Amino acid sequence: MDSVTFQRQAPLSLDFLIIGAGISGLACAYSLASSGHRVRILEALPKNARKSCSGLRVPPNMSKILLEWGLGDELKAKTRPCRQVVFDDLLTNENVGAILWRDEVIAETGGDFLLMHHGDLYEMLLRIALEAGVEIKYGAKVSQVIPGKELPKDNPPHRTMNSCGTTRSPSPICSYSDPATSGSVTGHGPPSVRLSHGELLTADIVIGADGSRSMVRELLLEPEHDHGVESGYTAYSTDVDIKIMDKDPILKQLVNDQNWHIWMDDRRSLLSYPVGRDGKYAVHGFCHDDIHTKGTSSLPCGKPSWETEYPKDKLLRLFSDCNPISRRLLEIAESPIVLARHLVLPRCETWVHDSHTIALLGEAAHPTVPCSNQSIGMCIEDAAVFGGLFSRLRSWDQVPSLMEAYQDLRQDRAYAAACQDQSNAEITWLPPGPHRDARDAAMRADKQCDIGDFNERMLRDQWDTVCEVFGYSASEAAANWWVGWGMLAEMAKRRTGDSLQIEMTIAPQGIFV
């Protein structure tokens, strides 16, 4: 299953600071470090304090990146393939419809649709990031991010050659005095990050991978920007032990079920699916504040993130009237139950600071519905594209164009995916009425199609439906931009100076530019 892609080494190596050691931060750190850059991650939580509860879906556009990163064997050991989404009524358990992805269509994407535990993915990315040389500073709460001054193109800082023949950015050096005295910060103009206890860290580029409520995003937006609104929905996640399910007469039917189940109701839904090979079953619940108000369960306090725990008895009250299978899943769910509030934010138009020294990545750039289909996939794509672009860095004057290319390549796609995930979620939350009736009628009509009668036209139609999302290749997107724009700019620049040089890399799979 392994399909390791040759990792090019950047001719010019920079020093990166990434804020946030979640999935986005680790993925970006690995993508950069594996191409020769120096990467440090700042994580506010103590080591081993991050909660990894419940599961996630790995769509083909994401799994193919993990395969390229050499994680094929671990994916095979830690995931389960998924081919069908089943839609049922939350109250009655009546089947409404299903979506079946044909093996031929999934194979054409170059990846696979997998189900796995969040903690397993986290550990995989943590391991390969550390092996690539990434440093992680835990308990490093960031209080301020200070943009750098764009370095003059004709006078870049001195660079030293490393043993591999690539040019290295020197360890950033700055003059710092405590803000309690003079507050001065001087140096050659790189961006800086101040920690809560006063320590100042600098790098060539700072990346904000600090989640949907990103402090780095606030720096990039106008002071009067739209801060978003609470959607009124809270997402809950937990695990169920499959061994317990196997002994339960109500849940036994789900033990060998590879499907992803979605139970739909008025402003509520419940998702469940098996994760990995270690006997866990993931459960996600969504509930609107109105349901809390009608019941006896109190609303979550403050702005809970995935580090916030919620009492199981309160969650059970929110879903007390649902069908026996769904209710039983929640009754035997393992603690902790973690939750996150859904914040609806407008499209973030600025991912890159004017200085080209700070960028947003993952949900810091494109927040979406918690536990949604592409919430993790888009973060991994961001990391692969960013690293792919900066693996081609050979001079300082390329940095602005690479930063802008990153936003151009990722912004529209990530926003479209977030909108689709939002729409998909809202479809499962419809109240009784004509819209729900139309949804159910459409799903039931699709269900009438005999799966055994799939013909070439139907396969083609399904491919046309999923190819844009599932068939996307982040590494190809970065490479195509380089061939179509980046390399042409380099060629034009060199015509006026040095003799033309076209970089060719010999990879095990062949020769590529």
Automatic annotation (TrEMBL):
Polar residues compositional bias, start-end: 160-170
Keyword presence, Iron: no
Domain of life: Eukaryota
Pfam families: NAD_binding_8
Molecular function terms from GO: monooxygenase activity
Protein family per UniProt: Belongs to the paxM FAD-dependent monooxygenase family.
Record protein name field: FAD/NAD(P)-binding domain-containing protein
